[in-house]
């Protein structure tokens, strides 16, 4: 009986364990099902969210297209309606009053105004920190031209480069009609060149004088040494002859040699007289010294005459200084004028239509390539004036590089966000191409002597100021400073793009000063023969 009971208890315990396992398995299954359902719900929510986002984007695009179509249609309708319907009320008839009021309401909706960035077309909003001053509904050339005299956020950009272009035109006219080398004091140039040559000749002449003085001192010193030597020898001879004389006297006592004595007595006196003559010996009166000094004087005179002839030839070259070409300066000024003209046109007409915005934007960037190339013509041409092959090579290299950048700038793709890096590298490469000839010129002037006295050093300070204006203005423009720190405070004046425009004007002015200095420096120093 007890065995049966134990067996039944064991069976019950096993059944309970199996039941618990089944319950645990069911719980795990339920958990897995719940987790799967939650994942499905999450995926459904995510898909629904993406669907809503896509619908919202489509809705906004459709709304934007509809607004643009409405704006285009209303502008066309307004242009076709008679202008009398948008005039003032005559007050004579109710129908005319009603139509006039309706015309006025339509006119107010399409009336151009200076407004907030939210009201402006998106393609003209280039700076997120500029809130106001946008031209809205300037949808005709007449309205755009009128905006030239309105105050908006492009006023400084437009007028700065319009005035700059006018200044460049005046410089071109001044050089073309008034600017000649006659304006330079030719006599002053001759005097300055003579002064320069005297400054170079005087040290050489002084060296000859010093050599002559040193030579005389050397001769005198040598003469003193000779005289001292002769005095010593004279004393020695006197002593020797005194000794001989005493010996002869002793010999006389023993031998009859009176005749020999008389002859020997005359010999020391003759030698003494000769040595006494050497005491007044002056080397300066001797033929060998006179011949040497004559040769040195002739060489000195011949060298001085050659230097005077060189100075005279340089003075004669001043008579042809007016033939020094000015076309490199004209190319620089023309490139500056086109750059400023393209920029002013772009900033004035960018609100007219989006296709015009893209077209003038390409011209704006193309003008930059022209300015970079034109600025290098004068320093290269005048710097390598005596080496035509190098001048032609570098000018051609810059012209080809700028031409490539100009053509690429006219394409649409280069102005998209995708090719922003490529565009930056393209203009950076053009700047490097422009700097290479100037670097070569500086090394050539510093380490090689070809007889050409031309130097770019007088104009270096202006080229450095030019580079500072370009790089400093570009840094301000790229950093959106100062408007990024005070959004909305520099909407009309003082924004980074306006600072960039003003810096370009100053850079052109400094370049003009530099290239005119290059021209005058080359006029002073024509090529050596």
Order of strands across the biggest sheet?
1-2
Helical segment count? 13
What would the average pLDDT be, to the nearest integer? 74
Distance between the termini: 142 Å
CATH architecture field of the largest domain:
Up-down Bundle
Low-confidence runs (pLDDT<50, min 5 residues)? 81-108
Instruction: Please give the largest β-sheet.
Output: 2 strands, antiparallel
Which CATH class of the largest domain is shown?
Mainly Alpha
Number of strands: 2
The overall number of domains is 4
Which H/E pattern describes the elements? HHEEHHHHHHHHHHH
The percent range for strand residues is under 5%
Coarse structural class: mainly alpha
Pfam family, one: HlyIII
Keywords: Membrane, Metal-binding, Transmembrane, Transmembrane helix, Zinc
Binding site for Zn(2+): 347, 497, 501
Family: Belongs to the ADIPOR family.
Give an account of the 3D structure.
With 529 residues, the protein is mainly α. The protein folds into four domains: 2-75; 86-144, no CATH class; 148-179 and 326-524, Up-down Bundle (Rhopdopsin 7-helix transmembrane proteins), CATH 1.20.1070; 188-314. Helix content is 76%, strand content 1%. The protein contains 13 helices and two strands. It has helices at residues 2-80, 94-110, 141-146, 155-177, 186-254, 258-279, 287-317, 327-349, 354-383, 388-409, 420-447, 457-479, 496-524, and strands spanning 113-115, 134-136. It has a two-stranded antiparallel ribbon with strand order 1-2. The longest helix has 79 residues, at 2-80. 20% of the residues are buried.
């Amino acid at each position: 009986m007890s065995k049966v009971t134990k067996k039944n208890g064991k069976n019950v315990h096993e059944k309970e364990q199996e039941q618990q396992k089944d319950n645990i398995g069911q719980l795990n299954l339920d958990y897995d099902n719940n987790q799967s359902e939650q994942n499905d719900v999450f995926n459904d929510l995510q898909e629904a969210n993406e669907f809503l986002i896509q619908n919202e984007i489509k809705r906004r695009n459709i709304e934007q297209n509809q607004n643009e179509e409405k704006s285009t249609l209303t502008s066309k309708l307004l242009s076709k309606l008679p202008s009398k319907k948008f005039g003032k009320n005559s007050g004579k008839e109710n129908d005319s009053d009603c139509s006039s009021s309706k015309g006025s309401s339509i006119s107010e909706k399409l009336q151009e105004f200076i407004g907030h960035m939210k009201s402006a077309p998106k393609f003209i909003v280039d700076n997120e920190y500029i809130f106001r001053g946008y031209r809205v509904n300037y949808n005709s050339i007449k309205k755009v031209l009128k905006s030239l005299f309105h105050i908006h956020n492009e006023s400084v950009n437009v007028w700065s480069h319009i005035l700059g272009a006018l200044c460049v035109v005046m410089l071109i006219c001044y050089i073309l009609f008034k600017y000649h080398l006659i304006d330079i004091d030719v006599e002053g140039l001759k005097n300055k060149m003579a002064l320069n040559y005297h400054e170079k000749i005087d040290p050489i002449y002084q060296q000859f004088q010093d050599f002559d003085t040193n030579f005389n001192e050397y001769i005198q010193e040598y003469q003193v040494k000779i005289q001292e030597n002769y005095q010593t020898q004279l004393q020695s001879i006197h002593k020797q002859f005194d000794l001989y004389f005493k010996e002869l006297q002793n010999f006389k006592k023993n031998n009859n040699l009176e005749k020999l004595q008389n002859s020997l007595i005359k010999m020391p006196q003759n030698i003494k007289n000769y040595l006494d003559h050497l005491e007044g010996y002056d080397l300066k009166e001797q033929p060998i010294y006179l011949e040497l000094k004559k040769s040195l004087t002739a060489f000195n005179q011949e060298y001085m005459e050659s230097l005077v002839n060189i100075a005279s030839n340089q003075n004669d070259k001043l008579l042809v200084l007016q033939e020094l070409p000015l076309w490199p300066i004209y190319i620089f000024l023309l490139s500056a004028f086109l750059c400023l003209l393209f920029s002013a046109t772009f900033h004035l007409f960018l609100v007219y239509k989006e296709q015009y915005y893209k077209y003038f934007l390409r011209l704006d960037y193309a003008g930059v390539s022209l300015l970079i190339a034109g600025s290098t013509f004068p320093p290269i041409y005048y710097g390598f004036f005596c080496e035509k092959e190098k001048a032609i090579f570098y000018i051609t290299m810059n012209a080809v590089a700028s031409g490539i950048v100009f053509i690429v700038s006219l394409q649409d793709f280069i102005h998209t966000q995708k090719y922003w890096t490529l565009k930056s590298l393209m203009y950076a490469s053009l700047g490097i191409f422009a700097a290479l000839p100037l670097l070569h010129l500086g090394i050539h002037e510093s380490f090689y002597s070809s007889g050409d006295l031309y130097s770019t050093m007088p104009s270096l300070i202006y080229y450095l100021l030019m580079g500072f204006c370009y790089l400093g203005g570009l840094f301000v423009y790229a950093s959106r400073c100062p408007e990024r720190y005070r959004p909305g405070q520099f909407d009309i004046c003082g924004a980074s793009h306006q600072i960039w425009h003003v810096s370009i004007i100053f850079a052109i002015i400094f370049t003009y000063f530099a290239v005119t200095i290059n021209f005058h420096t080359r006029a002073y120093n024509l090529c050596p023969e």
